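Rotation project, supervised by the postdoc (A.L.). Task for the rotation student: set up a whole-complex structure prediction and record inputs and outputs verbatim in this book. Inputs entered:
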Amino acid sequence: MEGIPQRPKHTAELLQEILQRTQALPNEGAVANYIPALAKVDPNHLGIAVAELDGKVHIAGDAQIPFSIQSISKIFGLTLAMERVGDQLWNRVRMEPSGHAFNSIVQLEWEHGIPRNPFINAGAIVVADTLVSHYSSSRAALTQFIRNLAQNPIIFVDEVVWESEREHGARNAALAYLMKSFNNIEANVVDVLDHYFYQCAISMSCVDLARSLGFLANRGVQPGTGEVICDPRSTRRINAMMSTSGMYDQSGEFAFTVGLPAKGGVGGGLVAVVPDYGVICAWSPKLNSYGNSYRGMFMIRQVAEELGLSVYS
Ligand code: GLN
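Outputs recorded:
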């Protein structure tokens, strides 16, 4: 029996301890290099932030340094699209785990251009299509949405990463054109890809990300401002899909070992939602073979275990 986990001394102290434990381990994995601009990041960065619903933010390490949020942006795009287009979205993208890599193409042909879920690239490209089709400037709308959520008006797009994704985005372009051939992309493919690459290239820190996603831990209401970001049903649905697909083909293992809705990105960021408590964000650029941050997963697992946060307990 493991016993009932004790609330620790102070969360800030705990984060510091976990950071040191993590630094003592070998820095395994590799930084993403299929987007060359991402390969330039210092692989030794390590940071973690916990934003609680009452506004307290605890940090350790490089928690205030902006990094490329990459696939974590899929949460923001999806939230905006669910609010904007409603349940029609589910005619064009499903809510099932894919069992394949985040940028896999094979399944999409068999399944007639309908992606398995909004957190793999194909699904996020469909979501990007709905945003491009419903906003006069989808990029400006998304940026404004994120700045407002994070309460940080200087959140920016890294133009070098954006350009690098465009230049090396052949696989994403293949996904988009394949879906266009099945009539599952409405807008111009180049515009849709440009939006998708843009949102992946947004830079945010662990603190920005943890604060911005508080609504997912609070039934759709943003802590601090009290603004309704989405309804409780959408909040549950986003968390459910993060639990089943947010860590791609490692989502089962993450549920098994950590037990929190989570989303990783190839910039090495990892966010985990703790309903009724807050949001954890960790960052370490080196990735495992699934495209998830090695040390980010280790740190979030430690926090979840020590604070007894699994939603399944
Ligand atoms: N921009 C990346 C891509 O499209 C995002 C993937 C990720 O973070 N998993 O490949």
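Student's summary: The mean pLDDT is 96.
Supervisor addendum: The CA atoms of residues 105 and 174 lie 8 Å apart.
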